[in-house]
Amino acid sequence: MPDRFSEILSFIKIAESGSLSEAARRLGLSLAATSRRLSQLETRLGVALVRRNSRNLTLTEEGAVFYERAGQALADMDHAESAVMRAATEAAGVLRVVTTVSVGRSRLAPMLQHYAMLHPEVTIHVETAAQLGNIVETGHDIAICFDPPADSALTMKRLADNPRVICASPAYIARRGEPRRIMDLTMHDTIAVESGQQDAWRMIDLAGVRPRRTLRTNDGEVARLWALDGAGVVIKSLWDVAEDLRAGRLQQVMKTIVLPSSPIVALYVARQGETAKVRSCVDFLARCLRQERGETIAVSGQTSPAPQRAFS
């Protein structure tokens, strides 16, 4: 027995063509099968939908009402399917992005503004947060972050690597001297960002060095402000301190020490990544971040001779 949708579709074709044989041709069915679907629909509804004679076929009053409403419902279904199918090929709709405060304000905001200009059918909604939550529960399409959680069930795309540098203020260096080797850190005050630099400090610890952790924080901006105020030596993302290095507010030390980069990643639900708006935005951010990474390194003069000790 045909399903309700098949019965209704057959009736719509019959009403539009005014003929059972023509409707059967359009549906790719036999005349008997088409007539049977119409009879089953009329039996289920309990009313006659068409008047049949030897020459033509016309709608009853009930048939005309049913044709108008059922036809509109089918048209709405077609529009809904088309809209969803376009989402896989055309970037459109609302794109909800969440990121950490510092990354969102300083890096992603102008990039997302540029993306919106290139894709006028997309509305960008950006939220910043101290810590990223579960984007499935919060309804975000993409999360952008440093150092993603190891146990995330979301799809992750690495957008770029953000180099880390060791730096201090000129005032601190003038007062305490410039550390040149890893061992020198045992004689210096250090500032540790606990939330995202455990791997970098762990590599230094594994080298047999136990720097004095004078100040600790889970806020990267607080660590930067402490370093600017001359409180100690800090490990920072190059993007976070590039302007400070260029302006001379901070000075890179131990340039030959290579620390693990901090990856910038996009997190999203696997199926969401198949939509054009998510896919195109993630690819766009990857291109922008990689280009900016190269420009930041070049402008900041971070090239150096062969590293004294490389951490990977």
Automatic annotation (TrEMBL):
Keyword DNA-binding carried by entry: yes
SUPFAM superfamilies reported for this sequence: Periplasmic binding protein-like II (SSF53850), Winged helix' DNA-binding domain (SSF46785)
Source species, domain of life: Bacteria
Keyword set, alphabetical order: DNA-binding, Transcription, Transcription regulation
A GO term, aspect molecular function: DNA-binding transcription factor activity
Pfam families: HTH_1, LysR_substrate
PROSITE patterns: HTH_LYSR (PS50931)
Domain (HTH lysR-type): residue spans on this chain: 11-60
Keyword Ribonucleoprotein: no
Family, per entry: Belongs to the LysR transcriptional regulatory family.
Name recorded for this polypeptide: HTH lysR-type domain-containing protein
